[in-house]
Write a structure and sequence with these properties.
This protein is mostly helical. It is built from twelve helices and no strands. The model has no long low-confidence stretch (mean pLDDT 91).
Amino acid sequence: MNYLAHLHLGGHQPTDMLGSLYGDFVKGPLNGRWPADIEAGIRLHRQIDAYTDSHPLVLQAKQRFPNERRRHAGILIDLFFDHCLAAHWHQYADEPLQDFTERVYKTLREEEPRLPGKLALIAPRMAAQDWLGSYRDFSVMEQVVAAMSRRLSRPEGLAGGATELERLYTPLQQDFQDFYPQLQAFVRRSSKLTHPE
């Protein structure tokens, strides 16, 4: 999953949001490097990634791509699933998407001096350009895929990725609709194990 889904699944508190995002930027053992509630969010982020990457519906979605694209299909699916979540946000959240994204950006602005490495660099752009809210509009996928390709050692792996997503839009959207409620249920179960009432 990509930024929006991790933030949606990670919890409502500012530290939950931070942990949800740190998971993409903090690697290796935690061992008290960060406050306990942020580390809990990083661990949840990692659990979500592991669950997603091995789920039959996600593996099925990857199979929809041509063989030469399979190595990078997971990245495209992560981005597309964030689009589906943003486009159908009201089905999965009570809070309006704009209110949610504003809370995220406010948290990032307040924590900016303490954000780790690359997150500190991208957080201001994420807020200024409303990355999370812009996922609603499929037309931004081309820009998002292009930006993602620049982070790869072999950017050509994502060339034409947005066109591929457009071609596969209907089946991939169905994959998301089948998968996301299962992921939400997994997160609820995980949260009960780590935060019993």
